[in-house]
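Recall that a protein's primary structure is simply its ordered list of amino acids. Everything else, from secondary elements to tertiary packing, is in principle encoded there. The following example makes that idea concrete.
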Amino acid sequence: MRFRSNDTAIDEIVASCNGDLRGAVRALLLINEHLETELAMAYAAAIDRGPVERGGNALH
């Protein structure tokens, strides 16, 4: 896995939106919303399954 600096990641995101900063922020907000939805679904699934065989919290 290749690690990037935050500045490099920001530059790549803005470039992918043709330099449009508002478009880059909009894209990041949409991605964040999608990830929050996935996380909520993962938590709900973990609660529905109950404790895992090893015990403890399923997401920790």
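The chain has a mean pLDDT of 86. The chain is about 65% helix and 0% strand.
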